[in-house]
Every structure is written in C-alpha cells, then in structure tokens.
Design brief:
By secondary structure, the protein is an alpha+beta fold. It has 3 domains: 106 residues, Resolvase, N-terminal catalytic domain (Rossmann fold, 3-Layer(aba) Sandwich), CATH 3.40.50.1390; 126 residues, Putative Large Serine Recombinase, Chain B, Domain 2 (Hect, E3 ligase catalytic domain fold, Alpha-Beta Complex), CATH 3.90.1750; 327 residues, no CATH class. It contains 18 helices and 19 strands. The radius of gyration is 30 Å and the shape is globular. About 6% of the residues have low confidence. One of its GO terms (molecular function) is DNA strand exchange activity. Pfam families: Recombinase (PF07508), Resolvase (PF00239). It comes from Spirochaeta africana (strain ATCC 700263 / DSM 8902 / Z-7692). Keywords: Coiled coil, DNA integration, DNA recombination, DNA-binding. This is Site-specific recombinase, DNA invertase Pin.
Length: 607
C-alpha cells in the first residue's frame, strides 16, 4: 500500500517546535483524506541546501506510488536549482509530490513552470531576508548592542541577553596579554598554560593559534570592529583604527585599552628574536571565500580558499602571495592545489570580461526570465481571482444559512454549518494573502531582472584597483583593501558558485554562463600560467579559449558548430564557416578587453 511521507522543516534549532507540529497536523489530515499511511519526517535545517539528513533519508525510503507532501514550496527548499533537481529525482522514482493543496504533474508544463517560479520566489525571499538580517546586524553593531553568535572565551550570556565575565577564563586572558607584553612568544605562553593544567571550555589543551586569536580580539578591551565577521577570522585580521572600533554596551572589558594596544602593536609590527615575522596585513583579498572545494562541500565541510603570504626561505626576503586551502578532508584529492594570487585573480577577471563579451546572451536570459515571471504573475492573478470568487460565493451561502438559522429558531446543525463556512472563508483569505505576497515578490523580481549585468557594473569593476599587497610596500594597504572588498562584492553578486573539482576550476555565473578551467598538478615551484577554458552558456558548450597569463594573450582553439551552423551558407565550406565564427568570438572578446583598457585609461564608460 502506498505511503504518504509528510515532510516538515524549520530553518534553525532555535525555532519553536510548534511550527513543525502545525505542519505535520496539516500533512496528516491530507494523508487521512486520501486514506494513506502517514509517515512523519521532520528536521531543523536551512532550506538553502538539500544536504539535509532527514530529507536524504526520505529520498532513500520512498518507493513508486508513494506520496511526498510539504506545507508549501518554501518548506521543500529555498534553492531554485536543487529544488527542481530533487523534484525530478522524485518523479523519476514515480513518486507523487504535493505542495500544499496542489499535486505536481510531471507531464504538465504549467505545473513545472509554477513550481519553478515558486521555488525562485522562495530563493528570492531567502536572499531578501538575509539582506534585511544583515541590515539589522549592521544597526546593532553601530549602536554597540551587537552580541557575538559564537561563545567568546571569557564571557557567558544568560537568558536575558546580559553578558557576564567568567573570572576563571578572564584570568587566562589577562595572563596571555601580560606575558606577551613582557616579550614572551605565543608558543611559550601556550606551553606554560598547558603545563599549569589550564584547559579550554571543551577540556582540551590550548593551541598557539587559539592564543593568537585571543590577543587579536579587541572585544577583550570592550570594543569591536563595526565591519567584520563578529570575532572570527575577518574580525581578528582587520587593521584596527580608533574611528573603526565601536564601544560595546554589552561586553565589559577584561584588559585595559593601553595593554591591548601595546600587545597588538607588538604583534603587528615588532620583529621578535624568537620568530620570523612578516608585517601584519589585512586579509580582505578579492577571492577569499569565493572559491570552494566541491568534494569537501558535498561531504559536509564547506572548505574555502583564503589568502596566505609565505616566504621562499628564512634566508631570502622574498614573499609569495597565494590562495590556499588547508582544511580539506583527508580523502580529498584536491588538497595539493595552491594558486598564486596574481594569476588566480587575473584568471577570474578574464572570465568576468568574457561574461560581457556577448551582450546578446545577457539580453536573451533577461527576456526569458521576464517571460517566465510575467506568466507566473498572470497565473497567480488568475488564482487570486478564483479565490475571491470562492470567497464571494461562500459569503452568499453564509447569508442564506444565517437566514435559515433565524427561521429555525437557533438550530444547532445550521450553526455548525455557519462555523464551517467561516473557517473556509478564513482559510481562503489566508490563501489569498499568500498569493498576493507571491505576486508582490514576483513583481519585485521582474523589476530587478537584468540590472546586475548592465555595463555600468563592468565600469565599476574595471575602475577598482587590484594591486597585490606585496609588490609595493609603500602603497596604503587599507585603501587597497577597500578596493579589493568592493571587487569581491561584485563577484559575490554575479557568481552563483565557484568550485575546485576534479583538477578543474568551475565558475558559474547567475546568468548561466559557465567556465571550466583545466588545472595542472603543482610541480615544485613551477607555476601554471597557461589555462584552457571551456565556455558554456545556458547548459550548452560554446567555445574553448586558451589564456596565457604570462604574455597576457588569449586564443580561441575550438568552437561549437552544432549551434552556430547557418544552413543558408551552402556555398561556403565548413572550414570557412568555422573560421568565421572563431573570428566573431575573438572580435567580441577583443572588443570588451579594449573597452576595459579604455575605462582604466579615461575613467569613463562609452559603449
């Protein structure tokens, strides 16, 4: 006998269990209506990813003929691509999928379209919610009311959101600062602490990296940086200035300001006898956090490539700026890849220019999105009108029942019918509100289509200076960091994901433009400077380009003829058609590169 799997989900562990209960009650009633055995599945996990334990367990349990039901599309997931992929997987197993009151028919194009649009709207809502959340966090940081999400060593937080100093842990923090101020090394301080039997909150020994993080946290003098990642890596690494720090209203100081600044300045600028120490630098690099390891991510560990400055040797005063990832899983075969900063950043920049090389593609994607959204808005308006019509008819029925109730001298059966009609009207009004909110979000998405890929974005990108830190020590480091952050923000807006996968870098933009870059294994200090890049658009291969970083040149080495062949050119040989398409692509790329050089030279956009 087929089963009905009711899947209920909330986003975080802190959310009330009441929401899960209400979802399961609703789904249980649907199963009872269809006289099916009900199997409840519930979990607390983000909808941005489908790597959820209970969801994956349900996918393994379902069999042909079973039903999978969710309260609405947002409970299924808030990632458009993965929502569609999971729906296809369920349909391939001949499993029936019900979203709310609607059953998704795999053979009905309209059902597929509506599911795709609702998934896109859920994705849009998640992004908008994140932006609003970030805005609220920024306001709290400016006002000094920010409370770190991580459990800071030395502090504890009670149920009323009041932060208190933990004296036992504060003693350790003061010991670290006082010892470092006397000139002791981080490693000596760490070893001494462990020899005294002092342990972390989890009962483990202290590590030098942990002690290093403590001396870089301004929160221990009662301040925090307004812009940063809340006491984590970015917060620790940023260059602190007096006008950059906000006095916390929540965290009392453990050490005084003079001691903290003495220790920080000593760590940042003083070369000590016991260690080879480089000048402290800001970690706001262009690609930090953008490039991730696909293999580790799929196994549940989101490992990203971050910036690193290394020396050739202790005797040589030469620096190498690289992007490295030291947190791969042991079984990952991609942990040997290290990318030279200037090469990787130029490679990403070249791919960025290729996105703008053919503006017809950008217009095509924008038109396709607009058409889909318009159809969705039309369907939603039709659904809204049907609900309004049903509400109107129910209100007429209600008036008749009230009249009958009065005529029959308060008959209890009629009263129950009136209450039932009231419940139906209330349910339909809630459905109408939900449809109206979807129409509003779809209209907002309609207005924003195409804005990301205007040529003003290319202009902003080109005008941002991207100078490696290590090539000019006299350049103001913080000013370069601001430019790099702005450039990274543009990448984050336009790049959907960037993975290192199977000896390749795969960069996918939100307009479906995809670049597959072939990597070579590191051979000692020999660095790869020539890259073969396969370019795809809308899921289809277009051409292959070879990028030579050393000589700053490119060459088209292959073109897809299946899509580009013109049947009207019967008198022209295929070789000439092939060369013609190659030349067209080369001209488009050369044109956008020339435009970038012109913008750099003049500071103006003229296209």
């Amino acid at each position: 006998m087929p089963k009905f799997y009711g899947y209920a989900r909330v986003s975080t562990q802190d959310q009330s269990d009441r929401s899960l209960e209400l979802q399961l009650i609703y789904l249980r009633k649907k199963a009872e209506r269809q006289e099916l055995e009900f199997v409840p599945i519930q979990e607390k996990a983000s909808g941005s990813s489908f790597d959820r334990p209970e969801f994956q367990r349900m996918l393994k349990m379902v069999q042909a003929g079973d039903y999978v039901g969710v309260y609405d599309n947002s409970r299924f997931g808030r990632n458009t691509e993965e929502s569609i992929a999971s729906l296809k997987l369920l349909h391939s197993k001949h499993v029936n999928v019900m979203i709310g009151e609607s059953k998704i028919d795999p053979d009905a194009p309209r059902d597929k379209l509506l599911f795709s649009i609702e998934a896109a709207i859920s994705d849009f809502y998640r992004t908008e919610l994140r932006m609003k959340s970030e805005s609220g966090i920024e306001m709290a940081k400016k006002d000094g009311d920010w409370i770190f999400t991580s459990r800071l060593y030395g502090y504890r937080q009670d149920e009323s959101q009041t932060v208190h100093i933990v004296e036992e842990e504060a003693k350790v923090i003061r010991y670290i600062f006082n010892c470092y101020d006397r000139g002791e090394s981080i490693y000596k301080i760490t070893n001494d602490m462990n020899s005294y039997g002092w342990r972390t909150r989890t009962g483990k020994e202290f590590h030098a990296s942990t002690v290093r993080r403590y001396i870089l946290k301004p929160i221990y003098m009662g301040y925090y940086k307004e812009k940063g990642s809340g006491g984590q890596r970015g917060q620790d690494s940023a260059p602190y200035e007096f006008d950059n720090l906000v006095k916390s209203k929540k965290y009392p100081p453990i050490v005084d300001e003079d001691l903290w600044y003495r220790v920080f300045d000593s760590y940042r600028g003083v070369k000590r006898k016991h260690a080879v120490q480089l000048q402290y630098r800001y970690s706001g690099y262009t690609l930090t956090g953008l490039l991730k390891c696909f293999y580790c991510f799929k196994l549940g560990k989101a490992t990203t490539y971050v910036h690193n400055i290394s020396t050739v040797s202790k005797k040589q005063d030469k620096l190498y700026a690289n992007y490295v990832n030291r947190t791969h899983l042991k079984s990952c075969g991609q942990k040997y890849h290290t990318f030279r900063e200037i090469i990787l950043e130029d490679l990403f920049e070249f791919c960025f220019y290729l996105v703008f090389a053919n503006y017809r593609e950008i217009e095509q994607i924008a038109e396709e999105h607009i058409r889909k959204i318009q159809n969705a808005i039309g369907d939603l308006n039709k659904q809204k009108n049907e609900i309004e019509s049903d509400i109107k008819n129910l209100k007429k029925d209600k008036q008749k029942l009230i009249q009958l109730y009065l005529n029959l001298n308060n008959d209890s059966d009629v009263q129950n019918q009136i209450e039932s009609v009231n419940q139906e009207i209330k349910s339909l009004q809630q459905s109408k509100s939900l449809v109206e909110s979807k129409i509003t979000m779809a209209s907002s998405a309609y207005e924003s289509v195409g804005e990301s890929y205007q040529f003003e974005k290319l202009n902003d990108f080109v005008l941002l200076r991207d100078i490696p830190y290590d090539y000019d020590p006299n350049v103001e480091q913080e000013n370069i960091a601001v430019h790099k952050k702005k450039k990274r923000d543009i990448y984050r807006e336009l790049i959907q994901n960037a993975w290192v996968y199977n000896e390749k870098i795969v960069i996918r933009y939100t307009n479906t433009k995809t670049f597959i870059i072939q990597l070579e294994r590191n051979r000692g200090r020999v660095v790869q400077t020539e890259f073969t890049i396969k370019v795809c658009f809308n899921g289809r291969y277009q051409y292959t380009v070879k990028f030579d970083h050393k000589n700053r040149t490119f060459e088209i080495v292959d073109v897809d003829m299946k899509k580009n062949v013109d049947l009207s050119l019967k008198d022209i040989s295929p070789e000439k058609v092939y060369e013609g398409h190659k030349q067209t692509i080369e001209n488009d790329i050369s044109e956008v590169l020339a435009l970038a050089r012109e913008i750099k030279a003049t500071g103006n956009l003229d296209y």
